[in-house]
Amino acid sequence: MQGFLKKITDWMIEKEEEAAKKCAIPMEEIEYQIAKVEAQKQKVQEEYEEAMRNLDSILQKLHKIKNIETIRCQNEKN
User: Fold this and answer.
1) How far is residue 22's CA from residue 17's CA, in Å, rounded to a whole number?
2) Would you state the pLDDT for residue 44?
3) What's 36's DSSP letter?
4) ∠ CA 63-69-73 to the nearest 5 degrees?
5) Rounded Cα distance, 53 and 56, in Å
6) Torsion, Cα of 42, 43, 44, 50 (10° steps)
7) C-alpha span between 47 and 64 (Å, rounded)
8) CA dist 54 to 44, 47, 59, 64, Å?
9) What are 15-57's pLDDT values in tens digits?
């Protein structure tokens, strides 16, 4: 599905580029699209950073559990 959406987006951008070469697209429309894409990019970046913080937190907890178990198991063997 993502590949399909990329193809559609690429096709639309190509058509807009052709129209821009003919001065058929108002500058305001292009600026609006740029702002919209920049806002979406910022949103995705924030979601990515939040996901990475969550994964880092989970990894820290798992490493802590592993360390506790390692120490506990070593003490039980002794």
Assistant:
1) 9
2) 97
3) H
4) 150
5) 5
6) 110
7) 26
8) 15, 11, 9, 15
9) 899 998 998 989 999 999 999 999 999 999 999 999 999 999 9
